[in-house]
């Protein structure tokens, strides 16, 4: 009865109940046909590209490597990205400290209103989803910093400084990667930066508690990202898996590197030359996990469409134009799903 009352509380977070249970509550259990099948997951360690960004702005070879990774995987890892190790360590440490605070302190940031630009919540969309995800998260808008910094939690005391110090260089990496992707497509270096309008940047602090029955649930189920590009910092606990050639593959962490994946908007801008791929987060029974994705987004009013330079008789235009705000609304209403929203905007959908 205590468990039921806790799970039914309006503002309860998963981490506040997960440590006191030995079975997954029924609202987290996936149907048999939609479970992780963890014994059938392979490893991608030997094949996912690891790109050295040391000379990303001046090297054709680096942009070609990134282009091949976008075409073959939709994912790659980066090293020599320019973000200091101490900045990474402080970001991970302050994230742990935030989720370790007393419940009363954490809940000051709680909201189930997705329009809030700073909010702590659980699962994905608690108002519409039928099955919950084994995750709590703190999502922060972080560009321009001065517009949002005052909204962020003031505890731990170093939170705002440490997160701001992390967000600024990650944005610089995102801009360099978007230039390299534009270049790899044969477009002007600043094409994608111009196409997405006034840029948005969000960061999520994802907390995945230990799970007594990880085979029954997900941290996040298979989905593609709706944004332009995602840059992921992980701790040393595995959990990210990517769908490649119909098989789920585990992407194990490499210290001080970042995982990069392209989102749906790159797939549209590239007219399907590059693919936004499905990925998921699984959980385990032995250790909590923290992941920190940075989502780089178009402005809501940005008009997204395939680049005209990538359209010809052999490569017809595959998408109608749409605003990012229109796209994201459909993504949010649909929830995390293996079928992306892209098909709703294909030209064939309107014939």
TrEMBL record:
Cofactor(s) essential for the protein: L-ascorbate
PROSITE patterns on file: FE2OG_OXY
GO terms classed as biological process: coumarin biosynthetic process; defense response to oomycetes; response to molecule of fungal origin
UniProt xrefs under Pfam families: 2OG-FeII_Oxy, DIOX_N
Catalytic activity: salicylate + NADH + O2 + H(+) = 2,3-dihydroxybenzoate + NAD(+) + H2O
Keyword Oxidoreductase: yes
GO molecular function, one term: metal ion binding
Keywords in alphabetical order: Dioxygenase, Iron, Metal-binding, Oxidoreductase
SUPFAM superfamilies reported in the protein's UniProt record: Clavaminate synthase-like (SSF51197)
Oxidoreductase keyword on record: yes
Domain Fe2OG dioxygenase intervals: 199-298
Record-linked PANTHER family: OXOGLUTARATE/IRON-DEPENDENT DIOXYGENASE
Family the entry assigns: Belongs to the iron/ascorbate-dependent oxidoreductase family.
Name of the protein in its database record: Fe2OG dioxygenase domain-containing protein
């Amino acid at each position: 009865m205590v468990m039921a009352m806790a799970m039914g509380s309006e503002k309860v977070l998963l981490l506040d109940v997960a440590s006191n249970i030995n079975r997954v509550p029924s609202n987290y259990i996936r149907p048999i046909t939609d479970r992780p099948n963890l014994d059938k997951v392979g490893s991608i360690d030997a094949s996912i590209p690891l790109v050295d960004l040391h000379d990303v702005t001046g090297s054709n070879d680096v942009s070609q490597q990134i282009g091949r990774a976008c075409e073959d995987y939709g994912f790659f890892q980066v090293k020599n990205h320019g973000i200091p190790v101490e900045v990474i360590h402080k970001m991970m440490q302050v994230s742990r400290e935030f989720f370790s605070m007393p419940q009363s302190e954490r809940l000051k940031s709680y909201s189930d209103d997705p329009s809030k630009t700073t909010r702590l919540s659980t699962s994905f969309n608690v108002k519409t989803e039928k099955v919950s995800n084994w995750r709590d998260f703190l999502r922060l808008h972080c560009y321009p910093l001065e517009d949002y910094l005052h909204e962020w939690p003031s505890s731990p005391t170093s939170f705002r400084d440490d997160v701001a110090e992390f967000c600024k260089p990650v944005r610089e990496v995102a801009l360099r990667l978007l230039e390299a992707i534009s270049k790899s497509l044969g477009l002007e270096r600043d094409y994608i930066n111009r196409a997405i309008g006034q840029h948005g940047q969000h960061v999520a602090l994802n907390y995945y508690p230990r799970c007594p029955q990880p085979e029954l649930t997900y941290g996040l189920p298979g989905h593609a990202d709706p944004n332009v590009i995602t840059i992921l910092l992980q701790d040393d606990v595995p959990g990210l898996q990517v769908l490649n050639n119909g098989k789920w593959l585990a992407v194990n962490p490499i210290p001080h590197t970042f995982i990069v994946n392209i989102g749906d908007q790159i797939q549209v801008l590239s007219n399907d030359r590059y693919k936004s791929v499905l990925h998921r987060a699984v959980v385990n029974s032995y250790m909590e996990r923290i992941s920190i994705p940075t989502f780089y987004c178009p402005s809501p009013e940005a008009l997204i469409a395939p680049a005209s330079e990538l359209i010809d008789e052999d490569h017809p235009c595959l998408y109608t134009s749409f605003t990012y705000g229109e796209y994201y609304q459909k993504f949010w209403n649909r929830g995390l799903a293996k079928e992306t929203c892209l098909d709703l905007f294909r030209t064939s959908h309107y014939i």
